[in-house]
Amino acid sequence: ATITQSYQERASLPKTSPVASYLLRLIAAKQTNLCVSADVSTTRELLQLAEEVGDSICMLKTHADIINDFGPRTIEGLKEIAAKKHFLVFEDRKFGDIGSTVQKQFTAGPLQIVRWANIINAHIFPGPAIITALSQAAHDAVKPPLLRSLLILAEMSSAGNLMTGSYTEQCVVEARKNPEFVMGFIAQRTLNEQPGDNFITMTPGVQIGATGDGLGQQYNTPEKVIGEAGTDIIIVGRGVYGAQDKRAKAEEYRVRAWKAYEGRIGA
Ligand code: 5FU
Prior knowledge:
alpha/beta; 8-stranded parallel beta barrel; binds 5-fluoro-uridine-5'-monophosphate; Orotidine 5'-phosphate decarboxylase; OMPdecase; lyase; pyrimidine biosynthesis; decarboxylase
């Protein structure tokens, strides 16, 4: 059903996580289902990219551990630009350890992810306690714990990855058990298969005019993933930050992904 429902309609469906509702409304208001992946190596580049593409995105994805000078200045800068330009911040940390360890990785260390990332993601190969551990850590660290939510990695974009079949199915089963905290998936197609499912699917491995990067990455177009595979948000890294004019490139991706969405819902 979510294939033909608008973002706006889905924002107020029952059992939708608070962050998912907020994000769906933001997407509808800004008319953007684009997330830019800011895989740059300095705070200066990160904040400059956020400023440049901020008006065209619903979300900025980070890998905080590749920023050479990550620190309080990075966090404050990101928060300020996100508030000003109205987008959420997603740290692509891919947690994958026992509950006790991921709680520490989420809240402590030099990155203190829980302080600044609205959205995080995790693998479920260690078992479902990873979900409850991250949820508990978010509740303990952020008062009120409103804007904290988890994406489960259900499928990956890279060639030969092992996240298929029953593994992917189990991700959906665990998500359905935790609808308050789990907002959706990283996947290559929508996984909303049962009536009542309203998970948000975010899809990396999107670039126009490329099929791969020679290191396993595989690319699809916005039309393929949003229009045909029924996912909700495209995640674009090098396709945007690798361009000379990043602002214009982000707009190009935004328009293409938005048209693919409108075509799919029959708007
Ligand atoms: F979970 C995943 C995945 O399945 N594929 C990915 O490419 C995450 N990614 C991330 O999206 C990856 O770590 C990069 O940060 C980004 C894709 O970057 P690109 O430059 O668009 O290939």
